[in-house]
Amino acid sequence: METYLRPAVIGVMIFVVFNALIMASAILVLAERKIMGFMQQRYGPYLVGPHGMLQPIADILKLLFKEELRPKGADKWLFTLAPVLSILTAFVAFATVPFGAETTFFGLLDEPIKLGVADVNVAVLVVFAVTSMGVYGIVLAGWASNSKYSLFGGLRAAAQMISYELAYATSLAAVIMLAGSLSLREVVDSQAGTWLGFIPKWYVFLQPIGFIIYVIAGVAETNRAPFDFPEAEQELVAGYNTEYSSVRFALFPQAEYINMVTMSAVATDLYLGGWHGPFLPASLGWIWFLLKVGVILFAYIWMRWTVPRYRYDQLMQFGWKWLFPASVLNLIVTAALVLYLDA
Amino acid sequence: MPETFVFYALSALAIGASLLVIGQRNPMYSVLLLIASFGALSALYIQLDAPFVAVAQIIIYAGAIMVLFLFVVMLLNAPREDAAEWDRAHPLRHPNIGRFGALLAGLLVVQLAWALAKATELEAPVGARADGASIASVAEMGRILFTRHTFAFEATSVLILVAMVGAVVLARREGSNQ
Q1: Which segment of A334-343, B79-88, B113-122 scores lowest on mean pLDDT?
Q2: Which chain A residue shows the shortest CA-CA distance from B29?
Q3: Which residue of B70, B77, B138 is in closest CB contact with A182?
Q4: Which of A93, A205, A209, A215 could form a disulfide linkage to A130, CB 3.0–4.6 angstroms apart?
């Protein structure tokens, strides 16, 4: 591939990923309501389109035509900035997540391209850094609304994020040690192949505790039930987004769904072997990737409608007294084993 | 040439945001401007071919420490940092304290001038070291940190620990056991 083509390839990749994320958030809204309906023995949305399939379009149109309100005492700049910051970090976080092996699209391109927007050698850390910035959107929304419910939602988001980020990062570090690389693409490629011919070499089998910690902390980081304290509708009306309406409001749940996708994609890359899987050729590995992400996303929704919310003090106790020590222990044991087996 | 332009734009952003942190009175905006300043610094690190340092800067400062700052500012919910009566009578407002601060500021300017004068002697590009190893490599950076700079590294961590213990001691009320 000639060098002048590279910006074009990156441009196409950005376009595809951007739209895929928007579509994913729309599909997730529908999936969430359908699965919730199924779990509660009812149909869920059923009127718009066949089996209610076009419900997300109706939702978006409804939100677009709502009036945009801003409380009188709200901070004008930060109130506008907060949802933008939320959605921005949600999109940017996916930039360094690879989702497929090198492919030429069946000879369509002269040289293979890597599926993923940017291939950075510290990709794991970039994803972590950007998602950790995502909390500012929620915290600022809570503060700028000048409402007591919003403020509590924002405060909780900040406290929860700091508490669970530690366990999250520590469980990541254990995988990085196993793979010996900070690049997500290299982490995925180190999981190629099988043990004994049938067990895939996924890190979930080497890091079962790490995987569980990662998923729990990931749910807390994306503010999903049972860790949805920033909005906790029974206590705080709607938490940080109480005062928001119309498009500004819509951006918050959309950012949340995109964050879920990113979290699942990173979990797939780190623990579930990314695009490696049997039956399909390497050029179609992204289908495996999508399937694995879908399974994790289903588990996300499943968890939300089956597990009740924690109490706030339980949340803090669990984060600091169980999750964090467990992840540190996991890290120490992993480090010792990696050193021992390598030497 | 575009690199030079980006460098000056980012530097201007970092310096401007840092000045505004102390230049305006809304503590909430101060925190956000500080984050903007950190972001610009981090982008400058990327320009120096040190992506790991850049990302660490974002994770540690912007992602963790500033969230804590924001949390405290929100918890106190101080709308503006106005000079109230008790504030003007504060011991830190004593003129001699101001003079001491001015002295320290003068010292800092002298130090900066000295360091910059010395820096012109450096010929090698910042990202690369003499033996060809780049600080872009995380493994190489870890090796340097735990061999050549071990003392500085450990001394810094002890310093942070001391500051933490000091904060606990200062915050503790006399006579309370909790």
Answers
A1: B79-88
A2: A78
A3: B138
A4: A93
Domain ranges for chain A: 3-342
* A136 interface with B at CB cutoff 8 Å: yes
pLDDT at B80: 58
Q: Which residues contact B91 (CB under 8 A, 6 or more apart)?
A: B97
Nearest-by-CA chain A residue for B26: A75
Taking only residues 235 to 274 of chain A, the set having a beta carbon closer than 8 angstroms to any beta carbon of chain B reads none
| Residue A196 phi, psi (nearest 5) | 55, 15
> Per-residue confidence at A106, pLDDT binned at 50, 70, 90?
low
User: How do residues A271-303 score in pLDDT, each as one tens digit?
Assistant: 888 788 777 777 777 888 888 899 999 988 888
DSSP β-bridge partners for residue A8: none
pLDDT digits (tens, 9 = 90+) for A154-177: 888 888 888 888 888 888 888 888
CA angle A315, A320, A324 (to 5 degrees): 120
ipTM: 0.77
From B42's Cα to the closest Cα of chain A, the distance in A is 11
Q: From chain B, pick out residues whose CB is under 8 angstroms from the CB of A120.
A: 51
Q: What is the chain A residue with the closest CA to B137?
A: A121
Q: Are A255 and A331 in contact (CB under 8 A)?
A: no
Residue A201 burial (CB count, 10 A): 14
Q: Which of A322, A36, A288 is nearest to A170 (CA)?
A: A322
Size of interface A-B (CB pairs under 8 A): 67
CATH C-level class of B1-80: mainly alpha
Do A10 and A1 meet the contact criterion of CB atoms below 8 Å apart?
no
